User: Fold this.
Amino acid sequence: MNRRMTDKDVRDARRHLSRVDPVLARVIKKHGPLVITRVTGGVHRFCEIIINQQLAPKAAAAIFERVLNAAGCRRLTARALDSVSDRRLRAAGVSPQ
Assistant:
């Protein structure tokens, strides 16, 4: 399946998670539903965002550059990322979490 999530998909997921996880249900009830903002840039931007959340900006930029080098590209794709072993990602500075 290769399609974008719809608002209905998000509502269905929220209902499902609320049913199966009582702690998450309380969080959703208290704070309201998660607002999902779509970000353009695909896998490249997604990975960049994750790495940036973990570290100071300068360190994150250096790690992301090492990931790009390990993948042998300037624009990260799912295929390029998949070609990099977990060991090489950790060597580039990416946390295993």
Observations:
- The mean pLDDT is 88.
- Residues 18 and 24 are 6 Å apart (CA to CA).
- The two ends are 26 Å apart (CA to CA).
- Helices lie at 7-20, 22-31, 42-54, 57-71, 78-82, 86-92.
